[in-house]
Design goal:
Distance between the termini: 49 Å
Number of helices: 15
Number of domains: 2
Oligomer: single chain
CATH class of the largest domain: Alpha Beta
CATH architecture of the largest domain: 3-Layer(aba) Sandwich
Helix content: 25-40%
Largest sheet: 6 strands, parallel
CATH superfamily of the largest domain: Glycogen Phosphorylase B
Strand order of the largest sheet: 3-2-1-4-5-6
Length: 370
């Protein structure tokens, strides 16, 4: 049994470092927690650590966070970074969900913070959970937004009861202006815009990484676009720089449909997504970006758990084909590895048909805007 140290008082807190280094989508799903922490500690310094600059975009312009810091690359730079963090003397380090890896707990301990907060998992002791001072048991039955808000129970047993649970992506007037200019330059101001993300993040060529097995076949995206094409509709292909070839391949396969590729910063991408009536995509960070800016989503799920990472809210449609061993991603409850080893080799996504996607998209497009 792990020693329970949750009775060590957390308050008062004058400074806290919140760690979210798993990805863009994970950071977005943690934004309700960031908002709640700011409400609880209106005068404290709340800093956020993310994996890369893109993951900082959802909150860089939001008053909930004082400073967004990016994890440095290289061992020497990392050691210097940890030294600077120790000099800041944070009262607490809080690692958002998912965090079932020893590196997260070791990092929290190295900062020197007296309170180190995170989730507890089965077998977590051998992965350094004992380095945390406060833990909440991770619950495999709830969404990641709720997993993060559950950490508030360590501050106040009822703190999460009435919280706003909507994830957010804070856009600046400059972001919206640049998005408007992009739409006008593309000649799409009078079109109904439909977003598509045929990718699922980086490492699409490495078979055991999530970005490979989370992708619905690219030719089906092209077929769905062709099936949805109308004179008053335009389709926007979104994705990161590592997905340029993928976006171009889908665009070239779309026949006479009006299809444009969006290449922009994540903040401007989010602002363009906010102008779309619908987003059709795999389970990805951009799925959560779309939902966070208020765009309804038709999301295609295969090896990952929709119960955990579906776009938050009732405006979205989830397509998933149940079957033996589905979904197969075991992280973080039954494994500390986030690799996907798909026993059906992607058949779970191939079972979703083009006609099903078109039908769900048309149903979404026929709804009155909320």
């Amino acid at each position: 049994m792990m020693k329970n140290r949750n009775d060590i008082p957390i308050a008062p807190i004058d400074s806290m470092l919140i760690v979210s280094v798993a990805g863009i989508g994970n950071t977005i799903l943690a934004t309700p927690l960031l908002r709640a922490l700011r409400q609880r500690y209106p005068n404290a310094r709340l800093d956020l650590l993310v994996w890369n600059r893109a993951a900082a975009a959802p909150v860089e312009a939001d008053p909930a966070i004082d400073e967004v810091q990016v994890t440095p690359r290289g061992f020497g730079a990392w050691l210097r970074f940890v030294y600077r963090l120790r000099q800041r003397r944070y009262d607490a380090v809080l690692t958002v969900f998912p965090s079932n890896q020893a590196a997260y707990h070791l990092f929290a301990w190295l900062t020197g913070a007296r309170c180190r907060i995170g989730h507890a998992y089965a077998g977590g002791r051998k992965r350094g959970e004992w380095l945390l001072t406060h833990r909440v048991q991770a619950d495999p039955e709830i969404h990641d937004v709720e997993q993060n808000l559950a950490l508030l129970r360590l501050f106040d047993e009822s703190a999460a009861d009435d919280m706003d649970r909507r994830p957010f992506f804070t856009l600046t007037p400059a972001d919206r202006r640049e998005a408007d200019e992009w739409v006008h330059r593309a000649g799409l101001a009078d079109k109904r815009l439909i977003g598509c993300h045929p990718g699922a993040g980086a490492a699409v060529s490495l078979q055991h990484w999530q970005g490979y097995f989370k992708r619905w076949p690219q030719e089906r995206f092209a077929e769905a676009i062709q099936g949805l094409a109308r004179p008053d509709r335009a389709f926007l292909l979104f994705g990161g720089p590592e997905e340029t070839e993928l976006k171009q391949a889908v665009q070239s396969a779309c026949g006479d449909a009006t299809v444009h590729v969006v290449d922009a910063s994540l903040s401007v991408t989010a602002a363009v997504l906010a102008r779309c009536e619908l987003m059709i995509c795999n389970d990805s960070g951009l799925m959560h970006v779309a939902a966070a800016v208020g765009t309804p989503v038709v999301a295609l799920f295969g090896p990952t758990q929709a119960s955990r990472t579906a776009p938050w809210g009732d405006a979205h449609t989830i397509l998933f084909k149940p079957g033996a061993g589905r979904p197969c991603l075991r992280y973080p409850f039954h494994s500390s590895k986030s690799k996907i080893r798909c026993p059906c080799a992607g058949q779970c996504l191939r079972d979703i048909t083009v006609d099903e996607v078109i039908a769900q998209a048309e149903q979404q497009l026929s709804r009155e805007p909320v």
